[in-house]
Design goal:
heterodimer; A: 111 residues; mainly beta; seven-stranded mixed β-sheet; 11 strands; B: five-stranded antiparallel β-sheet; globular
Chain lengths: 111, 109
């Protein structure tokens, strides 16, 4: 069974540009989460989808971040426009029950 | 508020036993996870405690005391491959995970 996949693995963009991160959860997992780890800090929750609906988006930093999960399958996280402080590793996780399975992350560098 | 504390670094010897402690203060508590993360890789699930007591799974055991807001992860018969970051993670009632900073464990020969 394929695990959670994320694309791209790395992205380097300039301040002000737009980046879209993609997450493909494990097939059949209704729950999809986005998390972020910035340098030197702990992993922090961004938001939670149940199928295509946003269950909890309390961790989204500001309105430059937009997450979608059309059709309840894969999800995208768009950052527009990117700022320097958005640099970090963005993790996606999916679950059927309590155990969350994490993807390898996308390392975003904003210069 | 939400707060999870665990030691930043620990060192142990191959074949030994190590205990990684974690204290937490989180609202809407719905269980305590331990995840392992090797550098540059995804966190992987180790254990989940929702009730007080000890859960044993092979070389790894995890303990929870909800009244004390305390958990520990016990690793026995340490192997070199156990060198990694160990994340103490609290679960809220919506499934949202709250992470500690992680304990970097170095296993030496």
């Amino acid at each position: 069974e394929a695990g959670v996949t994320q694309f791209p693995s790395h992205s380097v963009i300039e301040k002000g540009q737009t980046v879209t991160l993609r997450c493909d959860p494990i097939s059949g997992h209704d729950n999809l989460y986005w998390y972020r780890r910035v340098m030197g800090k702990e992993i922090k929750f961004l938001l939670h989808f149940v199928k295509e609906s946003k269950q909890d988006e309390s961790g989204m930093p500001n309105n430059r971040f937009l997450a979608e999960r059309t059709g309840g399958t894969y999800s995208t996280l768009k950052v527009q426009p990117a700022e320097l402080e958005d640099s970090g590793v963005y993790f996606c996780a999916s679950s059927h029950s309590y155990e969350q399975y994490f993807g390898p992350g996308t390392r975003l560098t904003v210069t | 508020g939400q707060n999870i504390d665990q030691p930043t670094e620990m060192t142990a010897t191959e074949g030994a036993i190590v205990q990684i402690n974690c204290t937490y203060q989180t609202s809407g508590f719905n269980g305590l996870f331990w995840y392992q993360q090797h550098a540059g890789e995804a966190p992987t699930f180790l254990s989940y405690n929702v009730l007080d007591g000890l859960e044993e799974k092979g070389r790894f055991s995890s303990f929870l005391s909800r009244s004390k807001g305390y958990s520990y992860l016990l690793l026995k018969e340490l192997q070199m491959k156990d060198s990694a970051s160990y994340l103490c993670v609290s679960s809220g009632n919506t499934g949202k995970l709250i992470f500690g900073q992680g304990t970097t464990l170095q296993v030496k020969p």
